[in-house]
Amino acid sequence: MKTIFWYLPSGLWMVLIYLLSAQSVLPGPDVIWADFFLKKIAHMVVYFVLFFLLYMARTHSMRPQRHQWILPLFLTIAYAMTDEFHQSNVPGRTATLRDILYDTYGAVLAMLVVFRKL
Predict the structure, then answer these.
(1) Pick from 50, 61, 63, 85: CA 20 to 30 A from residue 4's CA?
(2) pLDDT for 88-101, tens place per residue?
(3) Distance of alpha carbon 15 from alpha carbon 17, whole angstroms
(4) Three-class secondary structure of residue 86 per DSSP
(5) What is the Cα–Cα distance from 73 to 77, expressed in whole angstroms?
(6) Residues with Cβ < 8 Å from 118, sequence gap 6 or more?
(7) How many Å apart are CA 44 and CA 46, to the nearest integer?
(8) What average pLDDT does this structure show over 35-51?
(9) Residue 46 to residue 20: CA distance in whole angstroms
(10) How far is CA 107 from CA 23, 33, 55, 101, in A?
(11) Best CA proximity match to 3, nearest among 53, 77, 55, 57
(12) Domain count, the chain
């Protein structure tokens, strides 16, 4: 039961990401560079939070281990990849490697914050 409690927030966050990805057109500013900038920042923030939630679940639901960050990072990047695949099947949306990289940057940034390297 303890494990489910800690993984529930990350599961709900993944559902939110899925629902946002299922929208055919996301509203944004009329200025093209601002739209690009805000969407990429949003990618980083969303996957920053996902890594953090998965890391918290991992550290609180299992015995501490030396490299506790590996599984949360792998799961975050894997979810980013599946999210882009999902977007490729949504009308008006496309999948890009660049978005996966921004998602990964967000996860790595969260990892640096967790380990107080930033």
Answers:
(1) 85
(2) 999 988 889 999 99
(3) 5
(4) helix
(5) 6
(6) 109, 112
(7) 6
(8) 92
(9) 11
(10) 23, 24, 10, 10
(11) 57
(12) 1
